[in-house]
Amino acid sequence: MINILSVDNMRKSDASTIAAGTPGRELMMRATRGIYDSVSWKSPVAIVCGSGNNAGDGYALALLLHEADIACDIYLLSDRFSEDGRYYYDKCTVAGIRILQLLCEAQDLSSYGTVVDCMLGTGFAGPVRDDVAQAIDIINRSGVFVVSVDINSGLNGDTGMAEKCVVSDLTVSIGDYKPGHYLSMAKDVMKSRINCDIGITPVDRPYRLVEKEDISTLLGTRPNYSNKGTYGYIALIGGSKKYSGAIRLACMANAAMRSGAGVVKVALPESLYHDVTPHILESTIFPMTDNDGEMAYDPTKLDELVRNVKTVAFGMGIGVTEDTEAILKHLLQTYTGRLIIDADGLTLLSHMDRELIRNSGATVILTPHIKEFSRLIGLEINDILQAPIDYAEEYASDTNTIVLLKGPSTIITDGADVYITDTGCPGMATAGSGDVLSGILAAICAYIDNPLAATTAGAYINGLAGELAESIYSPISMIAGDTIACIAKAISTITLTS
């Protein structure tokens, strides 16, 4: 796994390293050497600098390029300098490196081979000033190879959100990655990224970016001396005529089987039995008491369904009724396995007292997208986007749940630890993708002992399968079923090549 540090953690860790005896000037040069070594430079190079330590990296970089006989110019937006930045700026003037005012002396950088963005660091938040906005536009329309130092100027280091930011071909993170390198808009504004370790030890517990090798270790190998019971019985509870539940449950069941489930029991309103049966031949159908196409609350049948079942996934296409609310309450109060709640189940949950969730004997796993999460915690989407990790942590801690917050990169937390998976693609923004994820999770949570690790593995596999599907069908033409068709290849990619 790879460390990801919040902006505050990075700031404190940087200060701690300096206080322990490593001068900030030395850290700046370490960062600069890392940047220099990370890029195949196309000459000449334009380095656009702001006013802080991010600009200092640019001045130090200009020195290294000059020493290597790579032509470079420095473009200033400000005549203000940090202490360490001023040190390297003065060296640039002594070396005779050309220094220009960007907005006064250049509106076009297209004649350069490489443009380096050293305007704003990871500590930046909010809208950019007019002069920086103009500089961002100049860089973005240059059409040449763009390198952003630490993070793309204008992008929030904690959230990955921006009103306007540099679009880079390569972003070189310094010290450790930050959440803004992965969340929200990050994938759309960074074609690639790399991190330069400069010897800073995190002060606070870092977040963790999940890698393929981590998932391979979790999945392990399956012994010959095993059977379907070894890998767990799971139950998928959902469906209604009104919400096309039959097809959604079929997707979930197939995703679960492809993800290694031992036995899948599909519980649905009895009237949907004949609709769903042809689509899930490998699974067991468990008809539930039916009330005109909607699932009715029948505690006896519900208890029979979940007896000896390791994982229950609830809510997909089930509808929001008094009966479905009663079913969810019953599961929260009586079931002691792993309970995955998605879709309509999350809507039902948002109307319930949190005490019911806190006191549940089940290990509750919630899989909201941002809109569903906003209903759960009672905040506007835009507010959540300002601190998505913090809100996910807070809710998970308060309710004793595992929260999987879906997005371009997925946040998984139990309130103590935070994991991020960056697999996934635009083609997954289609109906049914959440159902596929729930099916994968239900299976993996049945045979991996650690529920947080299992949830993380499910998110990673789901995203990787989506990427494989998109490579075949394109982001526009891809459907959720294509992700299911690529689950086996995704798992093979993880387990056979790690």
What does this structure look like?
This protein is α/β, with parallel strands linked by helices and 498 residues long. The strands form three sheets. Strands 1-9-20-19-18-17-16-15-10-11-12 form an eleven-stranded mixed β-sheet, sandwiched between helices. The chain has a seven-stranded parallel β-sheet with strand order 4-3-2-5-6-7-8, sandwiched between helices. A two-stranded antiparallel sheet has the order 13-14. Strand 3 (72-76), helix 4 and strand 4 (98-101) form a beta-alpha-beta unit. The protein is elongated.
Concise description?
The chain is α/β, with parallel strands linked by helices and 498 residues long. The protein is built from 21 helices and 20 strands. The strands form three sheets. The chain has an eleven-stranded mixed β-sheet, with helices on both faces.
- How many beta-strand runs? 20
Strand content: 15-25%
- List unreliable stretches of 5+ residues: none
End-to-end C-alpha gap = 14 Å
Largest sheet: 11 strands, mixed
Number of helical segments with 4 or more residues: 21
| Overall 3D shape | elongated
Strand order in the largest sheet: 1-9-20-19-18-17-16-15-10-11-12
The amount of helix comes to 40-55%
Task: Please state the average pLDDT score.
Answer: 93
The SS-based structural class is: alpha/beta
Task: Report the C-alpha radius of gyration, rounded.
Answer: 26 Å
